[in-house]
Write a structure and sequence with these properties.
It is a single chain. The chain is an alpha/beta fold. Helix content is about 30%, strand content about 15%. The chain is built from twelve helices and 24 strands. The strands form nine sheets. Strands 8-19-9-10-15 form a five-stranded parallel β-sheet, covered by helices on one side. A four-stranded mixed β-sheet has the order 7-16-17-18, with no helix packed on it. A three-stranded antiparallel β-sheet has the order 3-4-5, with no helix packed on it. The chain binds flavin-adenine dinucleotide.
């Protein structure tokens, strides 16, 4: 397996629970993927917090500690991931400081060349190397003489002091960074290509995703109608802040959970600008013809997805996205899986758990010719809609965008067809120690066993130290 970020960890646990031998190669010296700021190229800035809330965001059977806030910080997410790896004893299967340089088919499996110079052979390959490592820089007419950086290089608002800064792009990172600069920069601007719906992090005193998960699942048109009404009631008409009116319904673009940005726009310490038309020396010219002298451009314009170590042609790409069945299974190679190259409108880690379980079961299915055939026939003929019938805006980011509930429905369809049981709470307990049995031990015993560490972790957020 390639990568020991959250997706790789979910995969490692699933392989372990199914008794499938595996090795993980991680180019960095530690676990955590993007959440480890010391991982070169990590896009995590100091003010990063999870966008999904803690009770919705955990891996199955491994909750975040009670004392965590609704939206944990990047440090807390990193600590959580490392605690997860320790609780399920995954570290011993990870080879750190080892880059996977090249993967080529060999027989029915894979030949994997590592940065150590070794070449090793494996029957199956899971690529879990992440989606945020190749910054995408837009091209504008003209030339800019100021400083120009991608958002992935940004860490602290101190970098902006007394500069005139323009953030280009209003995804969640772009909005967070714009809020940082609004408080520190000499002048702060954000350029938005289109109008967006801004979702508050709390609604009626609850994290938004907790609120949204309550009650019956409504048809998508009704959810859009009700949520649109709610946002209109809470935020009002956003054109009063110089923002464009959204050209799409709510949920038709990746949700932006941020109301701080409206606060800063309403205080005038952040100015909304339309899309950039051209660059002219030290000045940015916007599509509406207005001009602003700018010292620093921050491009919060996303990432190109790549699997640079896979031999050319192993995965077909369409509009910058790999063409995978259920965003997971190679269509050409039954022994190749890609975990993590998808975007969805909810927390990702339980989706990773489901995907990881499907991969493990698909590997086991290949031990029986009949079952392997049954699976490949299903994939070949299956028509499914994991977009949930939503008409997403036309952009690379939203090409093949996944609706969380539609995806879980599709997972259930595949499980039913293949007779694979669902993963339900308690599924992973036998590869860690059951928590409840050790609840009393925690108070008496020194932290000597993994189980005690795990219980202590859940209650206090102490236990496994950062490794
Ligand atoms: C600002 C921000 C906020 C986010 N907030 C949330 C949120 O609130 N909720 C949520 O669910 N998700 C969130 N995400 C999504 C985030 O991508 C996931 O949390 C998660 O980090 C993805 O895990 P991953 O394992 O797929 O990728 P990564 O975290 O990128 O891990 C991939 C690992 O693979 C390693 N690797 C890469 N190439 C190689 C190679 N060739 N050889 C060996 N190792 C390699 C990397 O070093 C890395 O450790 C957020 C993302 C960002 C950028």
């Amino acid at each position: 397996m390639v990568g020991a970020g959250p997706a790789g960890l979910a995969m490692a646990r699933a392989l372990k629970v199914h008794g499938i031998a595996f090795e993980v190669f991680e180019r960095h010296s530690a676990i955590g993927g993007i959440w480890d700021q010391s991982n070169p190229g990590s896009p995590i800035y100091n003010s990063t917090h999870f966008i999904s809330s803690k009770t919705q965001s955990n891996f199955l059977d491994f909750e975040m500690p009670d004392h965590y806030p609704d939206y944990p910080s990047h440090r807390q997410i990193l600590a959580y991931l490392r605690a997860f790896a320790r609780a399920y004893d995954l570290q011993s299967s990870i080879r750190f400081n080892t880059l996977v340089k090249h993967v080529a088919p060999r027989g029915r499996g894979w030949s994997v060349t590592l940065s150590s110079g070794e070449t090793r052979e494996y029957a199956w390959l899971v690529a879990a190397s992440g989606a945020n490592w190749h910054p995408r820089m837009p091209h504008f007419a003209g030339a800019f003489t100021g400083e120009s950086r991608h958002a992935s290089t940004y860490r602290s608002p101190e970098e902006f002091k007394s500069k005139r800064v323009l953030v280009i792009g209003a995804g969640n990172s772009g909005c967070d960074i714009a809020c940082d600069i609004a408080q520190t920069a000499g002048a702060a601007f954000i350029s938005l290509r289109r109008g967006y719906h801004f979702i508050p992090k709390h609604v009626f005193g609850q994290p938004f995703d907790v609120f949204a998960a309550q009650g019956r699942h409504l048809p998508i048109w009704l959810s859009q109608f009700l949520l649109g009404r709610l946002l209109r009631a809470l935020n009002g008409d956003l054109t009063r802040f110089g923002l464009k009116r959204p050209d799409h319904k709510v949920l038709e673009s990746h949700p932006i959970l941020n109301t701080q940005i409206l606060h800063h726009l309403s205080h005038g310490n952040l100015i909304a600008k339309p899309h950039v038309g051209a660059l002219d020396g030290d000045t940015v010219v916007f599509e509406d013809g207005t001009r602003e002298p700018i010292d620093l451009l921050i491009h919060a314009t996303g990432y190109t997805w790549k699997l640079p170590y896979l031999e050319e042609g192993l995965v077909a790409w369409e509009g910058g996205r790999p063409d995978l069945y259920m965003k997971l299974f190679s269509r050409e190679h039954p022994r190749l899986f890609v975990l993590g190259l998808f975007e969805t409108n909810a927390a990702g880690y339980k989706v990773f758990d489901n995907m990881a379980d499907l991969v493990a079961r698909a590997i086991l299915a290949q031990r029986s010719r009949a079952e392997a055939h049954r699976l490949s026939e299903f994939m070949r003929t299956d028509k499914h809609d994991i977009g949930g019938g939503i008409h997403y805006v036309k952009s690379e980011r939203h090409a093949g965008y996944v609706d969380y509930l539609a995806y879980l429905k599709q997972v259930a369809r595949l499980r039913k067809y293949m007779d694979w049981p669902s993963i339900v709470p308690g599924h992973y307990d036998h590869v860690s120690q059951p928590l409840d049995q050790h609840a009393t031990v925690v108070d008496r015993a020194p932290q000597s066993s993994g189980a005690v560490r795990l219980e202590t972790w859940r209650r206090n957020g102490t236990g496994p130290p950062l490794a």
